[in-house]
Amino acid sequence: MEESPTNDPAKAGKTHQQGAQDNTPKSGERPDQGAAPTNDHYRPDPQMERDQRHIPAPDVAGAKYQFPVLAQPPEELTGLKLEPRMKIAAGVTAVIKSMEFSWTEGGVNRGTRGLLKMNQKDGFDCSSCAWPDPDDHRSFAEFCENGAKATASDADDRSAGPEFFAKHSLADLSRMTDRDQNNSGRLTHPMVKRPGGTHYEPIEWPEAFDLIGKELNALASPDEAAFYTSGKVPNEPAFLFQLFAKQFGTNNLPDCSNMCHESSGAALSPTLGLGKGSVTLNDLYDADVILIIGQNPGTNHPRMLSALQKAKQNGAKVISINPLIEAGLNHFKNPQDFMNPLKALGVLLGDGTTITDLFLQVRVDGDMALLRGIMKHLFEAEDRNPGKVVDHEFIKEFTTGFDSFEQNIRSTSWEDIEQISGISREDLLEAANMLATKQKIITCWAMGVTQQRQGVQTIQEIVNLHLMKGAIGKPGAGTCPVRGHSNVQGDRTMGVWEQPTKLFQDALGKEFNFTPPYEHGRDVVETIKSMYRGETKVYFSLGGNLLAAGPDTEVIAEGMRKQNLTVFVGTKLNRGHLVTGNTSLLLPCFTHLDIDMQKSGHQMTSCENSMGVVSQNKGALVPLPGQMLSEVAILAGVAIATLGPDRTNVADWVAMTENYDVIRDHISRVIPGFEKFNENLRKPGGFYLPNGPRERKFTTHNGMANFTTTELEKYTLEPGQLVLMTVRSHDQFNTTIYEYNDRYRGIHNERRVLFMNKQDIAERGLKAKDLIDITSHYEGEERTVEKFIVVPYEIPRGNVSAYFPEANPLVPIASVAKTSNTPTSKYVVVTVAPAKVGAAPQAQKQRAEAVPA
User: Fold this and answer.
1) Where do Polar residues bias regions lie (predicted)?
2) What CATH number matches the domain at 263-481, 3.30.230.80, 3.30.70.20, 3.30.1330.10, 3.40.228.10?
């Protein structure tokens, strides 16, 4: 066997070529998962103490007059052009848009080279979504339109250096759109905003590290600091980030998972023993029925459409459940087919592959009732055909809690099911008939489920459906939470979590010879509350944009302003960098695409995709001129300056920076499943992590898969009220805005729009393109955003939809999902009214003018 690269510095960071044998799992085979199945140290504490102190609703509409630096995107409209909703996703247009973005931002050479190395076995991991790459053959163009946009943004050859920040104050920059901020170019130099300053100005790295160390060490308690991460951060820096926070003395590690798939982990861990999905990409190809719930793959995970196309060709049926009819759920033209002369003409002229066989246009927050309706039909079918519908053998051998669950489903009334879901009993019967005799069933879901009030309980009903059918732990069957950002799952695996287990902390403390904190820290919502009250005094962000991603934007902004120090590690400017503490640092780092050269050579990192595959990430482009550092080097500099030789092993931080194999050797001894990490990472395509549910080994508290008896809650609205859900546009990934277009929904050159049912529009005396204000209502308080445009759309009556971050100020900080504490961005009660377009109150005008820009 080849010598470990850690023992041979000449080999550090290099990709080792493997033999010609093909060990990748074929369709229908289970992958080699290494060690015995384990859980992922995810033990959500539903009794965790939450801060219940009231935070009053901020003056959302008036904030623009009170603060010179805008926390919300500017209200100026950019020129809406409406076209009919598209019915086909991808195709020629997607290819053209991909090239257009790549060549415009990165130039032809950089842009093309970046695309051709993306998601290859010896290349870099796409910094967009976490959809898995094929185990075996990969196309020379293994990317989608959204991946091309993300890569183009990372490859940007424009720079936002000291000259840029000297020209523009923070107030000026905040009046740019989020798109224009992103398009300002790559951050190239460390910058600081001094107390009382209005601009970022240059600072040398040693001073920046020293400043962070002094501020952190001046705190009365380590718990007065918060360490936030984005899912874009690879495994190695994520591991170091949580290590540093814990050596400093806190588990305050809020991360973007708290706002997305926290509900999935909270539902899956106690029921199946693993807070992740149980399927592989090959399973999708083998499935008989695929349910897609609360997800828009055409925009958010476009490469998933290729997998669905292959599943359809193999005979699978697809049931799509969503309040909006999305192009990607309708038809798909695979851009790869244009490379095949036998398919090109047909794809060019035809409608592509039909994706959905049955579309159920559920009401917002109605998925739980819908699932109950399907299962109620299945129980009725079982009564007529004993032993043919419900898998009693699986239930007896592997599960507990079935009797209580069955009684709960049977006792749910059809009246409640139809009223809450908005779907008729007959349509639900059609769905049940597609499932009745099948066991190779996969359910995929995303934010449309997790950000509901009962997101956790809805996912538990998904698990219940799979357990009653025995549709888990076999080829072509299982659960598939579709993660968003590229390494959001990996960051949690690496220990970025505010609720670490004793097992994980013990292993970490033993490996690094310290006593880590065991008390639970604060998640995103609790961190925002703590910052708002001034109880957190230092906010450190490794990537991401909490201001634009989180709920109650003006509450977050007020919390940021109360910090002694805010630290933002990032690649490009965003709005979150502008609303700062008394002192603020803006520290530039490499992207996945950049070549990371350290003392031992060209380094690689790793990412974990949605299906538990860990693969290498190795940059392909020379970084722009400047003083950018890798995330690893930045964290090592901060750790050494803060902890010093008395609280950490300085030599080890230096060694980990010079050679990332050293980090991976540490990880291999701390985290189950990462044994022989360096060796396995160098295998083409990477390696699978252990997955108990995939093998019908459920590492729950009782060693069984657990049915859940949930409560179906009914909510009533006041006259005139609607339910809002926030969504992305097509030219957007998470909070990064690439353009003002959403072509699949027919929106061009505008983002401040509200999608409404035509009857709801008429009832309010409105018409298409009217200018409106939107007010949210929660526990007697109101928040208002101004200047949105009415857009008629096919959406259930009583429901409306708008883009985030523009609509995030409407989401109350106190409105969270049960158990997971995830903000309820998919259930916001609102009213709409004609816009009050007028001058600002005189007092507010004077206050704004008195603050220097």
Assistant:
1) 15-26
2) 3.40.228.10
DSSP code, position 30: P
Long-range contacts of 646-649 (CB under 8 A, 24+ apart): 647/247, 647/248, 647/514, 648/247, 648/512, 648/514, 649/512, 649/513
For the chain, domain boundaries: 89-252+501-685, 263-481, 720-843
Omega within 30 of 0 (cis) for the link into 805: yes
Distance of CA 322 to the CA centre of its chain: 18
What pLDDT does 693 receive? 95
- Rounded Cα distance, 576 and 545, in Å: 5
pLDDT computed for residue 36 by the predictor: 53
Predicted confidence at residue 23, as pLDDT, reads 46
The continuous run of DSSP H or E covering 736 comes out as strand 736-737
Question: Which residues face 438 on adjacent strands?
Answer: none
**pLDDT of amino acid 646:** 96
Whole-number pLDDT of residue 10:
40
Here the tokens at position 495 are 């220990």
Token look-up 């001046």 returns: 218
Out of 2.40.40.20, 3.30.70.260, 3.30.460.80, 3.30.70.1130, the CATH code matching 720-843 is 2.40.40.20
pTM of the model: 0.92
Per-residue pLDDT, 25: 53
Taking CA atoms, 677 is separated from 38, 661, 683, in Å, by: 16, 9, 10
Give yes or no for a contact between 701 and 684, defined as CB atoms under 8 angstroms apart. no
pLDDT digits (tens, 9 = 90+) for 770-779: 999 999 999 9
User: In a 3-state reduction of DSSP, which class is residue 686?
Assistant: coil
| Fold topology of 89-252+501-685 | Rossmann fold (3.40.50)
Point out which residues pair with 124 in neighbouring strands: 118
Residue 783 β-bridge partners: 776
- Please list the ranges in the chain whose pLDDT falls under 50: 1-23, 27-28, 41, 92, 342, 838-853
